[in-house]
Amino acid sequence: MKWSDWKVKAGILLIFLAIIFYTADYLIFKDAKSVLFYIGIDLAFIPVEILILVLVVESAINKKEKQIIMEKLNMVIGAFFSEVGTDLLRHFSVFDDNKNNIKENLLVKMDWTENDFLNSAETIKSYEYGINLKSDLGSDVLLYDLKTFLKDKREFMLRLLENPNLLEHDRFTDLLWAVFHLTEELDSRGKLEDLPDADYQHLALDIQRAYSLLIYEWLEYMEHLMENYPYLFSLALRTNPFDPEAKVEIN
C-alpha cells in the first residue's frame, strides 16, 4: 500500500509541475494559443511514448529478468549434476547394452563447437536404448545399488523441486519427475531379484525414460559450461561418465 501511495504522490507532483511550467510559459510569452498548441502536441505524442515504453523498455527489462532467471536455473542444474546427475548416468549406462553405439557422440572434447553438440543431440534423439535388467548375474546387485543411490538423493531432489525457477524449464522438471517415479518404483519393491518379467520390463522403461532425458540435459549442460565456465567445463570433461579413460587428475 505504501508503494502505491508513493506512485500516486509522484504522479500528482509531476502533473503539478507540468501545470506550473505551462502557466509560466503563458505568463512569460502571453501566447495562450501557442501554449495550447504545444499541450496538444504533447498529448498526441503520449500514445507513441507508451508504445516505446511497452515494446522497447519493457521488452528489454523482461529479457534481462529472464536472463537472470535462466542463470539461476543453470546454477540449480549444475548443483543437480554435481550431486546426482553425473553419478546417475553411470548407474543407468551399466544397464544399456547399446551404449557403445553412442559413445563417440558423448565423448565431449575441449574443442567442440555448437555443431558438435547439435549433431550429438540429433543422434541421441534417434538412439535406440538397450536397457537390459537381466543381462548377467550381477544385475540384481546393480539394481540395488541404483535403488540405494536414489533413496540417498531423494531429499536433495525434493529441495530442487521447491525452486520456483524450474517453471522456466519444463524439460528439466520432467527429468526430475521421471527420476522420482523410478525411485518410487524401486523403493516400493522389497526385493529386486527374481521379479516377474513384466516387472523387469516396466522398470526398464522407467530407467529408459529417465536415462534419455538425463543424457539430453547433460549435453546441454556441458555446452553451457563450455560457453560460460571453462574451469567447470574442464572438470566436467575429466569426470565424463561416458569416458572410461576419464580421470580427475590433470596430466
Strand share of the residues? Answer: under 5%
| Count of helical regions | 8
Q: Which oligomeric form is depicted?
A: single chain
> What's the order of the H and E elements?
HHHHHHHH
Structural class, judged by helices and strands?
mainly alpha
How is the biggest beta sheet arranged? Answer: none
Overall number of domains: 2
Radius of gyration: 29 Å
Q: What is the average per-residue confidence, as pLDDT, rounded to a whole number?
A: 84
Anisotropy-based shape: elongated
Please estimate the helix content. over 70%
Task: Give an account of the 3D structure.
- There is one protein chain.
- By secondary structure, this protein is mainly alpha-helical.
- The chain has two domains: 2-61; 69-238, no CATH class.
- 75% of the residues lie in helices and 0% in strands.
- The protein is built from eight helices and no strands.
- It has helices at 2-29, 32-93, 103-106, 114-125, 139-161, 170-187, 197-228, 230-238.
- Helix 4 runs antiparallel to helix 7 (197-228) and helix 7 runs antiparallel to helix 8.
- The longest helix is centred in the N-terminal third of the chain and has 62 residues, at 32-93.
- The radius of gyration is 29 Å and the shape is elongated.
- 17% of the residues are buried.
